[in-house]
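wait is this the right file?? whatever heres the structure
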């Protein structure tokens, strides 16, 4: 028997990655805006079905979507600090307020301000916005760091991480963190090729109202992530 529906597709362009599952009467899409994505891995950790994977270095995208295994629940969209994902149903974008998991109080309201991303700008040069709903601290392993790499500096959306010239008693350049700017998204730790940075999140700021068994598991996965070595494996 020839399988007609659902029709599955995954398309990658210069600006987006689109996973699509099309039924006879319903069209589901999960879209990653590659211009907003900072490779922080939050969506990988947040996915309740563990179907979003980290892309290999030679991939044209930092994450890999699975159009078949994805349930299009929107948890990744809701948790993305950079608003880099969006969910579309029948051609219409579903806002976070309109998601069924939010309407049914399956996910708590995330607390925290929207901050400007000095390292991420739109086509008009205006800083993009990011959600600052996580707190924690960074651990820097200087002995592992290859200071010429600067992958962490490039990927930090808020320019919270930088290198300064070392003083006479210090070795070379020294990594610095501006704690006022850091949103603890994890982009620095997730993309560091030698795991020289650990991010230890201590808190996800959210409201008290939620009635789902999987939110505590999602929260635990995000809080337990420390380095790229901890990323979800296939």
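ok assuming it is, sequence goes like this
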């Amino acid at each position: 028997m020839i399988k007609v529906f659902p029709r599955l597709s995954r398309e990658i362009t210069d600006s987006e990655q689109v996973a699509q599952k099309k039924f006879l009467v319903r069209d589901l899409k999960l879209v990653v805006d590659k211009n907003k994505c900072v490779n922080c891995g939050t969506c990988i950790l947040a996915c309740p079905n563990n179907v979003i994977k980290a892309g290999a270095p030679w991939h044209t995208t930092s994450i890999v979507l699975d159009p078949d295994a994805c349930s299009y629940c929107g948890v990744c969209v809701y948790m993305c600090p950079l608003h880099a994902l969006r969910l579309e149903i029948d051609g219409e974008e579903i806002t976070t307020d309109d998601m069924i998991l939010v309407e049914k109080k399956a996910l708590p309201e995330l607390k925290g301000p929207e901050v400007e991303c000095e390292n991420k700008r739109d086509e008009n040069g205006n800083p993009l916005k990011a959600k600052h709903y996580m707190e924690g601290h960074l651990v820097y392993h200087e002995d592992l760091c290859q200071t010429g790499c600067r992958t962490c500096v490039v990927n930090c959306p808020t320019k919270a991480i930088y290198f300064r010239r070392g003083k006479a008693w210090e070795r070379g350049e020294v990594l610095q963190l501006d704690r006022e700017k850091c949103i603890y998204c994890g982009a620095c730790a997730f993309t560091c090729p030698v795991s020289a940075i650990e991010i230890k999140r201590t808190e996800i700021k959210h409201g008290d109202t939620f009635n789902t068994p999987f939110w505590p598991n999602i929260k635990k996965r995000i809080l337990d992530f420390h380095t790229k070595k901890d990323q979800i494996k296939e």
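The longest helix spans residues 215-224. so i think its the right one actually
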